[in-house]
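Now for our target.
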Amino acid sequence: MEGMTKADVDKLDKGLAVHGGRPLRPRDAATLILLNRSGGDVLVLMGRRHARHAFMPGKFVFPGGRTDPADSRIPVAAPLHAKEEARLASGPGRASAARARAIALSAIRETYEEAGLLIGRKGPFATAKRDWQGFVEHGVAPSLDVLRFIARAITPPNRVRRFDTRFFSAWRDDVAVELPDGGPTNELEELVWLPLAEARKADIPDITRTILEELEKRLAHDPLLRPGGAVPFFRLVRNRFVREVL
């Protein structure tokens, strides 16, 4: 466990609104860091949030959002790798297999909704869930075996929004269908592929920059992002922001 100073916490939270009520319970959320190799660079997909949003307006972020527990019941072409599921189940608030599945699937669903990218395998797919009809229409069965659990971060108390966010990665080759007009929501108004070094210099939340730095370190010694890699976990413990490893 590594501690951070109050200044470090303020830096990581810079730009997030604060409220003075009772601390909100963090809600499960998932984010997908989509990667693509181009020459000697690794590019990352980011989108700019609309300026009118209460949470991180105008910032470049990864596709992602809140987890719907019903996502756990969506059929998949392949389940999470056992080592990835074990990492997701570790740490505080240990996730059951169903919860881990829902969190991972929400990263895939949000990437479709916000970026128009359907991750999975071409083939028959059926579900009555409204949020997954894009996969039905385009004949893509979501697949969890391509996901790698990269990092976890819990928003500190007294913020306008609190999330227990799991950051996943996948490669652009894992995208079965790419919609030319983007996703059905208007969460992100601009999508760009940036080299990792440039992404760290963009207008991004500081915790996002921290996650990108962690990802670069992992890629340096594990370019293929093999299953079961160590996962950094950021949270506030006894008024100190700490980095643990799951």
